[in-house]
Design goal:
Length: 78
Amino acid sequence: MAKFAKADLNKDGKVVMTEQILAALGTYARAFLSAAIALYMTGNTSPRDLLMGGFAAVAPVILKALSPANKEFGFTNK
């Protein structure tokens, strides 16, 4: 249960699917924003390039989530 402690948003001792989804979306958002901000700071302000850079940063996170070996955000057998 310790590895899910951060995902327990309402501190009730259990992690429901909504909390897992919100935790995963937070990971996707951080990856997307960090890539878009890095591109913007280099002077590339094209909205298309910023979106494509953000999506490129999120792709590995999505692939990690699709892996059955990933127990944090991946698909798990109950």
